[in-house]
Amino acid sequence: MALEAPAPSPGAGPPQAGRRKAPPPPDRVPDASPMAEAGGVAKVTRVVAANISVWARIAEIWRSRELLVYLVRTEIKVKYKNSFLGLVWSMLSPAMTLAVYTVVFGLFLRNGIPNFVIFLFSGLLLWNFFSTGVQTATGVVVNNAGLVKKVSFPREILALAAIGSAGVFFFFQAIVMVIFLLAFQSSPAWSLLWLLLVALVPMLVFASALAVFLAAVNVYMRDTQHLVEVLVGAAWFWACPIVYSYQNTVAAHLKNHGLTWVYFLNPITPLVMTFQRVLYNKTGLVRLKIAGPPQYAHILPSWGPLTYVWADALVLVVSVVFLYIAMVVFGRLAGNFAEEL
Question: Which member of 163, 229, 271, 306 has the lowest number of beta carbons within 10 Å of its beta carbon?
Answer without folding.
Answer: 306
